[in-house]
Amino acid sequence: MTESDLRWMRLAIALGARGLGRVWPNPAVGCVLVREGRVVGRGWTAEGGRPHAETQALAQAGAAARGATAYVSLEPCAHHGETPPCAAALAAAGVARVVSALEDPDPRVSGRGHALLRAAGIAVETGVLEAEARAVQAGFLSRVTRGRPMLTLKLAAGLDGRIATASGESRWITGPEARRMVHAMRARHDAVLVGAGTARADDPALTVRGLGVARQPVRVVAARRLDLPTDGALARTAREVPLWLLHGPEAEPARRAAWEGLGARLVEVPAGADRQLDPAAMLAALGRLGLTRVFCEGGGALAAALLAAGLVDRLALFAGGVALGAEGRPAVGALGLDRLADAPRFRLAEARAVGPDTLQLWEAG
Fold first, then answer.
1. Distance between CA atoms of 349 and 362, rounded to whole angstroms?
2. Residues 152, 20: contact at Cβ < 8 Å?
3. What is the pLDDT of residue 82?
4. pTM, 2 dp
């Protein structure tokens, strides 16, 4: 591994990250083709997952790909899907060397891409900047290895951890800079998830606004009984922006028919011991539908359920400079803890100012 390898792999990983939130169920991959110290082709997974990064880089390079080194942020695919295998395309183009960040755990690939390249006489080096690539691919890796998407929990609270006054007033605890950043975070996830209480109280659109994105995240609402207003923002836009409703077996047929008539996709989920929707089953269902990255924006009961079940991978905590007092509504509902040792714990990954507010990014484990 050389300094040049690190340089070009950083570029490949950064290019791949451009696809986050837009390429599911595929991974967000980047590829850079370098020949004689010069980039001759580059690409990243296109919106919707096709074409792949390698295909785009090879098309840009043309004949200049022969003898080049390909830097790829994930093992090139080896299976026939909607397009031929990328590993075969690289071999056919005559690249001399392939440097990849990590092996693809998808059973259809899982080392086969690297093996195909080596069988074609191409030098292959793996594991270059693996940790950085894993951070970008966390959602895809989670869906493949754990059967569920990576989940980021966003909380916006005052200094005392309250998200609203006792009457429910919450606009605005944080400033415009923080709200804009939340929209940017939504854009880098496949879906935005809220509970039924939040959907009823706030009538949210759950879309990305002000950033000019071409593909909106899926809006997901956990509503056990489907007791949501059919004249709200979500209902009015269900045919324009995907809306998925997670519900329990007891949801009334009339409500199911009404929401399907509005254009929503209904996903039945089993209940847990407390008769609420089982959090693990919810995420497993979303994983089966192809989602890799989910951004949860509450409310408190849903946040508590996900935390208690150990399903929160990353936590984004925005704090505004206001105190709402004990009568205010908490950011996280009851966890039923008797011992501090049983409390969910996270490690601080980053802290920064966002306008007049602060943002703390925490990671599980």
1. 5
2. no
3. 62
4. 0.93
**pLDDT over 70 at 85, yes or no:** yes
The pLDDT of 307-326, averaged and rounded, is 93
Residue 47: which of 300, 185, 216 has the closest Cα? 216
SS in 3 state form for 222-243? Answer: ECCCCCCCCCCHHHHCCCCCCE
Distance CA 302, CA 127 (A): 37
% of residues, the chain, pLDDT over 90: 79
Instruction: Please check the confidence at residue 320 and state whether its pLDDT lies above 70.
Output: yes
Distance CA 59, CA 232 (A): 46
Q: Give yes or no for a contact between 44 and 13, defined as CB atoms under 8 angstroms apart.
A: no
Q: Which of 3, 54, 75, 363 is catalytic?
A: 54
Residue 35: how many other CB atoms lie within 10 Å = 17
Q: How many CB atoms lie within 10 A of CB 191?
A: 25
Q: What gap in Å lies between CA 128 and CA 74, rounded to an integer?
A: 10
Distance CA 174, CA 168 (A): 15
> How far, in whole angstroms, is CA 175 from its chain's centroid?
24
Q: Is the peptide bond before 217 cis (omega within 30 degrees of 0)?
A: no
Asked if 125 is an active-site residue, the reply is: no
